[in-house]
Amino acid sequence: MNRKTWCRAFLLSSLSFTSLGVVGPDAFAQESSSVAAVSNKVVVSNEPDQPRATPVTRDSMKQYLEDLKFRTPRIPLPELTPEEKKLATEDPRTYGYEARLRKLHLNETSVSNYLPFGGVSKTASTQTPSRSGPVDPKMTLDYAFKVRLFWIAARGNNCQYCLGHQESKLLAAGMTEDQIAALDSDWELFPENERVAFALAKKLTLQPQLISDGDIEACRKHYSGEQLIEMIGSIAGNNAINRWKEGAGIPQSSNGGNFGGQSPTESHSYLTATSDKYAKRPSKVAAILEEDAGNVSLVQSSPTQFQRPPLETGAELSKRLESVKQRHARLPIVDEQTAREVMGELVEGKPVYQWHRLLANFPIAGKRLAMGITTAKESDALSERLKLKMDWVIARQDRAWYAAALALEQMRAAGIPQDQIDLLDREIKTADLSTSDPKPEDQERAILLIARNLAASPIVLTDRQVELAVKLVGPRAVTQAINYTAYRAAFDRITEAAGLGL
């Protein structure tokens, strides 16, 4: 049975799941607490080793956003004490599941280093408070515009957690319901400079291997080189946080992310009315099957798709890797001395690569993203050799040739033999993993399976795959693997969009 046939069979066997999208007017009128109660009754989980389906229309998308509030997190944590439960209710951003997970296994609570290029108004100063951390004075793109790019990345990745937050942020920024709906299916309502950026965000999210000189040149008509770096850095960070939220299975915020000024304990519902103009339009951003897009009266959900072709092998692979040596950056990079001054301790006594020189255009945001990438490299539960193998596996999924060439160079320097490198391109299945009598190779394969699937798409990684990995290597290693893959996904997109060379 091929993948499309399998997905269709799965979807037809889960009719109660695919029917979630049609929400009647009575549901819209209910109080948030009542909506939550009704929503909970109709939530039907996907099978543990199957990806969650993709909502086709805006109505079905909203139901998915609401239902995700009842998601069971993937990585177990110690039981909360009564005092911790009280703090988690009062301040979920600091004491909730996600913050506890990061503090316990990553020694931090903030996800802000994924997003140093996002969420900042063009009028902001270095003193302006920002959830994304200190503001880089060199950033000039508008806050709401970058949130629209984030919305497109999250919709493309089927990351309903992040999509819900961007809905709340765009409403708080003054966009109407119909204007937000137009992001999914009616880009003609937006000016040309935004449309070309939306196209870049979609392609960089779903098919980073297809980014070309033409895509960058289309944007260069409207944006400077530094603005393009800011835009790509923002989109890359969006893709990173999509993978963190989905990989760890973070439940949707019950308060809409506390955007727009509501209190942390205030309830919130995504089940708002959609105008007739947009209620049943199929998405032009999400990856959905063509037959589903043309038959929305019957189909509200579409099987999640892989959008990557088979991996290159042999002479074709060698040619692609060799071509990196001939590439010249499409976007501005600073000189090595400037990069050393900006990156400081991150490159002290170490080589300065082109990716450092690219990010060093932004002394605050660029360094913070470089710091996140570098800190992830220091994950104590993952061996150095395993992280190098993950670099290769993730870069191969993204066709990020600069990242793949670096990974190959570093694996060879670390003494990893070529036959082991060749094995990294083989598909890994859960049936290949033994939990009854696990061996070191089972543990390594479990982590590489996370890296491979999470790189391909945030939603492709399944509950069962994470569950097996936790059994084989423990929650700390799994949490660090998800975080590491998130940063590498950002690294791949930045370096490939910029066309960096060795």
Task: Please give a structural write-up.
The chain is mainly alpha-helical and 502 residues long. It folds into three domains: 1-70 and 111-307, Up-down Bundle (AhpD-like); 75-104, no CATH class; 314-497, AhpD-like (Up-down Bundle), CATH 1.20.1290. The chain is built from 25 helices and two strands. The protein has helices at residues 3-12, 15-18, 25-29, 32-42, 58-67, 82-90, 92-95, 97-106, 143-157, 160-172, 177-185, 192-206, 213-220, 225-248, 290-293, 314-323, 336-343, 354-359, 365-376, 384-398, 401-413, 418-423, 440-456, 463-473, 475-497; strands at 54-55, 301-302. The protein has a two-stranded antiparallel sheet with strand order 1-2. α8 packs across α25, α14 (225-248) runs antiparallel to α25 and α20 (384-398) packs across α25 (475-497). The longest helix has 24 residues, at 225-248. It is globular. It starts with a helix and ends in a 5-residue tail after the last helix. The model is unreliable at 1-44 and 121-130 (pLDDT under 50).
Structure keywords:
single chain, 502 residues, mainly alpha, AhpD-like, 3 domains, two-stranded antiparallel sheet, 25 helices, 54% helix, globular, disordered N terminus
The run of helices and strands is: HHHHEHHHHHHHHHHHEHHHHHHHHHH
Which descriptor suits the 3D outline? globular
Order of strands, widest sheet: 1-2
Poorly predicted regions: 1-44, 121-130
Rounded to the nearest angstrom, the radius of gyration is 22 Å
The count of helical stretches stands at 25
Report the CATH superfamily of the largest domain.
AhpD-like
Structural class: mainly alpha
Oligomeric status = single chain
Tell me about the largest β-sheet. Answer: 2 strands, antiparallel
CATH topology of the largest domain: AhpD-like
Q: What CATH first level of the largest domain would be assigned?
A: Mainly Alpha
Q: Tally of extended strands? A: 2
Beta-strand residue fraction: under 5%
